[in-house]
Design a protein that fits this description.
Blueprint lengths: L2 H9 L10 H19 L3 H26 L7 H22 L2 H4 L1 H6 L6 H27 L8 H27 L5 H15 L11 H4 L7 H14 L4 H25 L3 H4 L1
Helix pairs in contact: 1-2, 2-7, 3-4, 4-7, 4-8, 4-9, 4-11, 7-8, 8-11, 8-12, 11-12
Family: Belongs to the ABC-2 integral membrane protein family.
Subcellular location: Cell inner membrane; Cell membrane
GO molecular function: ABC-type transporter activity
């Protein structure tokens, strides 16, 4: 059974538009999410290993470049890299692939009448699940360096998951909607994410940023987000200022994304 047929069957969506049933929307989300997870984790163990191989390989390259070749003297630099690279991967993968998420699912969108914002919602959820599945890798490295996860993780991880999710979902929804009308947006976002990567404390701790410019970090929405994840995963501490700033950005981007989607969604059929 094709994905579109499963959506019709699960969603029970009629052509009159009487589809205000949240249980049906949930079923559609599950069907799309199952499709994405099946592609990523088709061979369960091997699929999982390949999914974490890319950030691990990147961390190794950065470690060799900065700590061995450039002799950057930062204690526990391996852990600093891992606790920055994995949250960043969720952010950049979701935002980077957002532009084409409607275009890539055009066949389903044309055949079935359902809320289109479920498609980027599925994509962001998929990357969130991937990030959650990478946390055991961070735990293994913490244990290797004779550290243990903190009990603060029990409430800190859910808090940061919610903030991170709504931030990237809002950005993804807005980008996916705009890209249907301006198809060069994907190339532009690739450039923006490259700049953001080096302006975000992924490869370095906040201590290396000079104090007189450190407060400018808050102008970059990803900076307090990644720094907050590192504080939690590495030191077992919830940095409430970072959480508050990130939550503010998340609310802002979510609101902007929803406004853009609602204003443009009625034209989707004309451009898909």
């Amino acid at each position: 059974m094709s994905v579109s047929q499963r959506i019709r069957r699960k969603g029970k969506v009629n052509l009159l538009g009487n589809n205000r049933n949240w249980e049906n929307y949930r079923d559609i989300l599950i069907v799309l999410l199952q499709k994405e997870l099946k592609v990523r984790y088709n061979n369960k163990l091997l699929g999982y290993l390949w999914s974490i191989a890319n950030p691990l390989a990147a961390a190794v390259v950065y470690f060799v470049a900065f700590q061995i070749l450039m002799r950057l003297r930062v204690p526990d630099y391996q852990l600093i890299l891992l606790t920055g690279v994995f949250p960043w991967q969720w952010f950049t993968n979701a935002v980077g692939s957002a532009s084409n998420v409607f275009v890539g699912n055009a066949s389903i969108i044309k055949k079935v009448n359902f809320p289109r914002n479920i498609v980027p919602l599925c994509m962001v959820t998929n990357h969130m699940i991937h990030f959650i599945m990478s946390i055991p890798v961070i735990v293994l490295f913490l244990l290797f360096y004779q550290r243990v996860p903190s009990l603060t993780w029990l409430y800190g991880i859910p808090l940061w998951l919610v903030v991170h999710f709504f931030m990237v979902y809002g950005i993804a929804l807005g980008l996916a909607s705009i890209n249907l009308f301006f198809r060069d947006l994907e190339r532009l976002m690739s450039i923006v994410l490259n700049f953001a990567f080096y302006l975000t404390p992924v490869l370095y701790p906040l201590d290396l940023i000079p104090e007189h410019v450190r407060h400018y970090m808050f102008l970059n929405p990803a900076a307090p987000l990644i720094a907050g994840w590192r504080e939690l995963l590495l030191d077992g501490r919830v940095e409430w200022l970072f959480l508050a700033v990130s939550a503010g950005y998340a609310a802002l981007f979510f609101a902007i994304g929803m406004v853009i989607y609602r204003r443009l969604s009625w034209k989707f059929a004309e451009v898909l």
